[in-house]
Every structure is written in structure tokens, then in C-alpha cells.
Write a structure and sequence with these properties.
Immunoglobulin-like, single chain, 1 helix, disordered N terminus, mainly beta, binds copper (II) ion, 2 domains, 286 residues, 6-stranded antiparallel sheet, globular
Length: 286
């Protein structure tokens, strides 16, 4: 997840323009050579700058000097795997020091291409810089591994992604239809708000069980809930941060860059278990 809870408003804005710069850089060449017009309009800073836009991450295996290196790109279906990886740092060595964001030094999201399988886990860092986590992926198919972390000396997250294959017959599930309500683990979760491309989209969620609103959601990773948004088609990992409403504990602001279909994964904790509600949503043009 994004370390939005620890970012100041300025830092959050910086994360947005930085990610836009990285997206531009990956398309046209090294970051910093594109001569983006916004560079002169901002105070000088160590981060590259670009025209403000919505944050998109998780489309590159290497970015900002950091590289995601999976120990193995294949995991057998249905068996617990000892999943390992490193983050190569700017000096070429595995990064061994991380800043904490949302209670964790690194967040790992593993999704199947059709978004029908989703894991958000927190690997353990070994002294040599190797991350490990027991991971069981039940169903075959192409997966994407997304690592979200804040290296020392930075205020914004780096989001890297690599492909992972679970061999076997891949049967993609048909797309979820956009809906405002979804059911998970006996809870009904309702989303209020709409995604609009190119701007801040306030979204609020309410959780009920057996028709009664659940009043006692538990803190999870330093917040009341977490929201991860992935773009269908390329699984871009999008910037989402908590909203400012004190009355709605599950309020977020999503910045989606383009019209089209997205998948939202809301994670809440109740009765000492984490529940993940999945929504499909269509972002309209602004
Ligand atoms: Cu996490």
C-alpha cells in the first residue's frame, strides 16, 4: 500500500508528480532528460518533476535505481511456496534498509492477470536483504508481483512489479461488472462515490453484516482500512490515500489517470480477521 498515512500533503503531491515522471521516463527515455515543463515551476528537489497527473506505479521491474528480483519466476499451483525476492539498490546490492509505511517496511501484492486472485502480504526481511514469505497460489495463470516500499532517504514510495507464472491451465474469469455493493466473508460492503479520470475521486465505504452496520472495525496497519486500486488491462497500481472525513472512517481519495475499468480492493479488519472486498468500477472522463 501507499504510505499515504505518513505523507504530508506536499509529499503526497510529490509522489503523484514523481510517478508521472517515471511513467514518462519509461516511455521516452531516462528520467530527467525529457525537459518536462513543470520542472522549472517547482522548488528544486532531488526528485524528478513532471506535469502533475495521477500516480501510476507497478508497471516496471526497475525504477529510480531500484530493481525487483524474484528468486524464481515460477510457483507451483496449490502448494505452499517459500517465495523469495530482493530489491536491488542503486549500488547493485540488495537493499537491506527500508522506511516503515503503514506499519510495514514493504507491502507485497500478488494478483492474477484477470484480478480473480489477490494477495496482500508482508514478507520478512533477512539480514542479507532477501525477503521471504510463505505463499500459496491455488490457481494457475499469469500473475504479477507488486512491491511497494519507501527506500531510505525518500519520502515517496517506489512501486516495482515482476511477472510470476503458476503453471497449468489458465481459465480467466469473466470481468466483474461494476457494482456499488459487494459481499465478502458474510459482510456487505457498499461504496459511495464515483471514479473520475484525471482528478481526485472521493470514495467512502460502509460495512454491514446481517443488515446492521458494523460499528467496530479494527485498526489494520495503522489505519481503519486500506484501498488498493489496479487498472484493468495493465494492472497499473494507483495512488490512493485516506480521505479527510473524520465522520467516515473508510474514506479515501483515488487519483485515476484515465477513463476505463478499475478494480478496487478494500481491506478491513473485524473480529481479528482481515477481509478483502473487491469492486469493479468504471472511471468516467473528467
Ligand atoms: Cu501491506
Amino acid at each position: 500500500m501507499r504510505p499515504a498515512g505518513v505523507l504530508s500533503g506536499y509529499a503526497a503531491g510529490l509522489a503523484v508528480v514523481f510517478a508521472a515522471a517515471m511513467a514518462l521516463g519509461s516511455a521516452v527515455g531516462p528520467v530527467g532528460t525529457a525537459g518536462t515543463p513543470a520542472a522549472a515551476a517547482h522548488d528544486s528537489h532531488e526528485e524528478p518533476q513532471a506535469q502533475a497527473g495521477a500516480a501510476v506505479g507497478g508497471l516496471a521491474v526497475s525504477e529510480a535505481g531500484y530493481t525487483l528480483q524474484l528468486a524464481q519466476p515460477v510457483v507451483a499451483a496449490g502448494r505452499p511456496a517459500d517465495f523469495r525476492f530482493t530489491i536491488g539498490g542503486p549500488d547493485g546490492q540488495p537493499l537491506r534498509s527500508y522506511r516503515t509505511s503503514h506499519d510495514k517496511p514493504l507491502h507485497l501484492v500478488v494478483v492474477r492477470r484477470d484480478l480473480a486472485e489477490y494477495r496482500h502480504v508482508h514478507p520478512v526481511l533477512g539480514s542479507d536483504g532477501t525477503w521471504s514469505i510463505p505463499l500459496t497460489l491455488g490457481r494457475p495463470g499469469p500473475y504479477k508481483v507488486i512491491a511497494d516500499f519507501v527506500p531510505p532517504g525518500r519520502t515517496s514510495a517506489v512501486v516495482l512489479a515482476a511477472d510470476l507464472t503458476v503453471p497449468g491451465v489458465y481459465t480467466p474469469e469473466s470481468e466483474l461488472r461494476p457494482a456499488k455493493t459487494t459481499a465478502v466473508d458474510g459482510y456487505d460492503v457498499t461504496m459511495t462515490g464515483a471514479l473520475v479520470a484525471g482528478g481526485d475521486s472521493p470514495l467512502t465505504f460502509s460495512v454491514s453484516r446481517a443488515g446492521q452496520r458494523v460499528p467496530d472495525l479494527q485498526p489494520y496497519l495503522g489505519a481503519n482500512g486500506h484501498l488498493i486500486v489496479l487498472r484493468e488491462g495493465d494492472l497499473a497500481y494507483l495512488h490512493v490515500h485516506p480521505g479527510s472525513s473524520a465522520h467516515e472512517p473508510l474514506s479515501f481519495v483515488a487519483d485515476v489517470p484515465s477513463p476505463g475499468r478499475y478494480r478496487l480492493f478494500l481491506e478491513v479488519r473485524h473480529d481479528d480477521a482481515v477481509h478483502t472486498a473487491s469492486f469493479a468500477a468504471e472511471a468516467g472522463a473528467s
